[in-house]
User: Fold these one by one.
Assistant:
Number 1:
Amino acid sequence: MSMDKSGKPEQTMKDKQLKAFTVESTGEKLTTNQGLRVSEDEHSLKAGERGPTLLEDFHFREKMTHFDHERIPERVVHARGFGAHGYFEVYESMKPYTRAQFLQDPGVRTPVFVRFSTVAGSRGSADTVRDVRGFAVKFYTEEGNYDLVGNNMPVFFIQDAIKFPDFIHAVKPQPHNEVPQAQSAHDTFWDFVGQNTESTHMVFWAMSDRALPRSFRMMEGFGVHTFRFVNEEGEAHFVKFHWKPVLGVHATVWDETQKIAGKDPDFHRRDLWDAIESGNYPEWELGVQLLKEEEEFSFDFDILDPTKLWPEELVPVRLIGKMTLNRNTDNFFAETEQVAFHPGHVVPGIDFSNDPLLQGRLFSYTDTQLKRIGGPNFHELPINRSIAPVHNNQRDGMARMTINPGPVAYHKNSLAGNSPAPASEQEGGYKHYAEKVEGRKVQARSDSFKDHYSQATLFYNSLSDVEKLHLTKAFQFELSKVNNKEVRQRAVDVIGQVDSDLAAMIADAIGAMAPVNGRTAKDSFRSPALSMENKAKSPKTRKAAVLVGNGVKDEVLTSVLDALSEAGVISELVSLKLGYVVSDGDKQLEVKHTFETTDSVLFDAVLVAGGRQSVNELLTQPLAVDFVKQAYRHFKPLAALGEGSELLAASGIGAAAPDGAEAISSAKQPSAAEPGIVIADKLDAKSTFSEAFIEAITAHRHWTRKV
Ligand code: HDE
């Protein structure tokens, strides 16, 4: 990627535009908002040192008033989010399908701003709750802003926008006591599920590991709805959008997820921030599934139904470009909080379908910004500004920023030569696709939307055994938190329409009855693309905790750490105290965390370094033993050098496993006795050791381990 002279990513047009609004105060004098220099900022103006504060203290009044008004309403959904800047490049011209300028030329970099979010929780809730994740991308194209406002799951809970307030009321904290925060595990959510069976498919996604992403950088994104691409000749294709993360799709385990919520509620935002700061720029490929207009009715599902996906095996995903995030925000509020997305922000060549959920969204997003940002000029906020020039007859409104001179603010006019004038299609004017529509006004839903179970079955059937197990446990957990027995039973009955064995396992765990008229998922079609197990794997940016004490053997450790770093793994030393440990070779090694301040749930892998004294120190520390035990229980790769294997043994690892004891005693080569456990006590085996550890890290988790 191109860098500027200082080695920073080159500025995009959007960066330059934002720069004009950026105020750097380092080295400056303090002023009021009127630019008046302030001489005192610690003592308000009083009548005598012990006297009352005087109203004429304008600096105090201004400072306090601004503070009193610092909050704006949080988003009604997706309140907790985190954003970053980057750019998008198309691989090859999409001209045959769309006239969208930003999809024509592989040489063009379109600036983007992306905001990831959870849906149900408040602004201050934890990152790692079980939830759908928002994946909203604003492309600052030369033809105006294009927003692809998607989620990390390809379908949705409801088919018609009119049900959105009901669904959200059911999943949000209950209105009488505002409990529980950022959880679907409560009566009203599951009551909704039992009463509104169109949600079944999405509920399966929400109970799957997709709802527990390891990182924003490791989740897919989906436009969900069917959109249209329209080319220069006016020909349309139906299109579904996908974002495929280069690092693959990975999740945490449920126990870990809950613990991270306490140990580091900012886990996902910290992860994204750190990755960008360290130059590990996250990347996603943009994929499209395309259908000709005449293929609209070729499937056993309705392509307008947002509770249905197009199996990739039936309609392949074509990768058409790549998005790279390479710059963190300068100010969270100004950028991430004030960014306003809208599925109706489109450019020529991209159009809508009649999906009734999408149609409703086209109303909701402007409306919500009016409330949240306080008026109709939210497009003027720096983060929302288009890089294409804006000219129209809109004037006034709360906090208007542009100064539009002249008396003429209407169309048509003669006094300003009829400008600003509508543009022809050739000049880039947006023309709605001339779809033929006819029908009676009805409040009804098409029969083609009535199948609520087939694709839930497809999804369930396409999962690996481990993913199925996690999903089963998720249902068991969530429904165990439901107090009303009838609500629990109805949920089990609905699940029985997808797979009766699954429903029976859930029923057994929650004191409900197995459904009598269930179906079996076994014979249904599978879509391997739906399983996370079949996605890319990479050791890059994974975090390894390296457990050390004083006297640690540094020679072999250094070579292992070098190998890890070369593979892109980030290693951080954990010890009893912050500062340094002194190695057997008298080197000072910097300790990043203590056992009190971190936890194995915040790492992907654990390496116990060798050295008699070092391991003895670790063995005296119960938290070190717990660290290893917990990483093992969460199926994480564990490696030990030399005497380090004793800490594993003290944590019950290896010794408890059938072949483990042997592995620990005198392995010359890494032990294959247990999946994801790499042990070496011979220095000459170091290269093989590093390779085996990196391979174990690449695998993400070692599910066959019996814990
Ligand atoms: Fe949204 N949604 N939504 N949604 N949505 C909002 O807009 C809404 C839906 C999504 O980071 C709100 O600015 C309705 C599907 C994301 O700022 C609001 C319906 C998908 C974000 C709204 C849906 C999404 C939002 C709240 C059903 C995936 C966060 C604040 C008809 C394709 C954007 C705001 C950000 C935010 C309404 C369903 C994605 C109220 C009415 C389906 C990623 O306008």
Number 2:
Amino acid sequence: MLLRRLEAYGFKSFAEKTELEFGRGITAIVGPNGSGKSNISDAIRWALGEQSLRTLRGTKMEDVIFAGSVNRRPLGVAEVSLVFDNSDGRLPLDYNEVTITRRVFRSGDSEYYINKTACRLKDIHDMLADTGLGRESMTVIGQNKVDEILSSKPEERRLLFEEAAGITKYKQRKREALRKLEDTGQNLIRVQDITSELE
Ligand code: ATP
């Protein structure tokens, strides 16, 4: 599945609306230190739903919004869209092109969109589960990540294999089903209490 295009506005150093087209094959991004190369991979991670501030190299989610420069005022919103070529149908949507958009405001409100239709973060995670772009994926390998994987605990490393093997989705669904069972169990106990009080 090819990432065709990245569009960013107000994300970290991208104060202007910026569009990057990716062709087939290898794309290399070069530039001086601090020019924003890593901000591009941060933007990809972020739009895919990354929640970890450490991974995004920030301390609060607001840090992803353009904070201003000598000549420019800070912005109030950050938005990143990733346009995927889905002609191979890897994403479970009936479209040849799928756009994932994430937007965050300084108030902390977040919005997610799939093909310009508002959705939940969960919908994005569900759509990406088992495509290799999911939460624990190795799609974006940052500096020090290789060392981190080699020195990670076996349980942490197992998560990577589970994502690659395509079972993460089922584990997620199992967790949700168990939670619903637990809620239903609690409700049953409450109903039993009420009926015994009434008897
Ligand atoms: P290196 O080659 O040293 O790894 P790089 O090209 O990968 O550098 P990045 O780390 O992507 O650079 O970008 C860092 C730049 O992004 C810094 O100049 C920093 O001020 C700017 N930056 C990060 N967050 C924001 C923000 N919220 N608002 C404005 N600028 C930001």
